[in-house]
Design a protein that fits this description.
Proteasome_sua/b; Ntn_hydrolases_N; cytoplasm; alpha+beta; Proteasome_alpha; Glutamine Phosphoribosylpyrophosphate, subunit 1, domain 1; 4 helices; five-stranded antiparallel β-sheet
């Protein structure tokens, strides 16, 4: 029951993902970080088969770093999105990756941006988007409450509304979510949303 969603606000973009690593009816982890910090000003949120997700996102991260190392300048968010789309399109005709991506970034010239890239190499620049079963509910909440030029506080409030809706509607809802943000100050983790707090050990008798 994966869910990755994101939106663009006033001077920033954010990506939210569940942190559950699930196979069939088993939950292997509840703290799996599915949002990769691609470089200093880019985030890559991914959903899909866990092996494909990890392998492909790491492959993109290393290629973005290689480009910067060779040329001395970083890729723009649009260029990184097109690189990712090209790699998925090439793999689609050989050995496809079942991975869906939301790429968020901040560029000095164009400001924040968010790109939708699915497993069949569809690429769109968007203001809000989502993947996974939770997308049915997060997209409907964003359709109702999202508007351009949102502040960070308003965007986080909308994220919380989406998380509450996902937890209440899905039969098997992911318990924990991670929120990451990118703006002129860089890409970083913003907060976690945990349904059960870790007490740090067994309760005392």
């Amino acid at each position: 029951m994966e869910c990755v969603f994101g939106l663009v606000g006033d001077g920033f973009a954010l990506v939210v993902a569940d942190t559950s690593a699930v196979h069939s009816i088993l939950v292997h982890k509840s703290n799996e970080d599915k949002i990769m910090v691609l470089d200093s000003h880019k985030l890559l949120g991914a959903s899909g088969e866990s092996g494909d997700r990890v392998q492909f996102t790491e492959y993109i991260q290393k290629n973005v770093a290689l480009y910067q190392f060779r040329n001395g300048i970083p890729l723009t968010t649009a260029a990184a999105a097109n690189l990712t789309r090209g790699e998925l399109a090439t793999a689609l005709r050989k050995n496809p990756y079942f991975v869906n991506i939301l790429m968020a970034g901040y560029d000095k010239e164009t400001g924040p941006s968010l790109y939708y890239i699915d497993y069949i190499a569809t690429l769109h620049k968007i203001d809000k988007g989502a993947f996974g079963y939770g997308s049915y509910f997060s997209l409907s909440m964003m359709d109702r409450h999202y508007h351009s030029g949102m502040t960070v506080e308003a965007a986080i409030d909308l994220v919380d509304k989406c998380i509450v809706e996902i937890r209440s509607r899905l039969v098997v809802a992911p318990p924990n979510f991670v929120i990451k943000i990118v703006d002129k100050d860089g890409a970083r983790e913003y907060a976690w949303r945990e349904s059960v707090k870790d007490t740090g050990g067994a309760p005392k008798a």
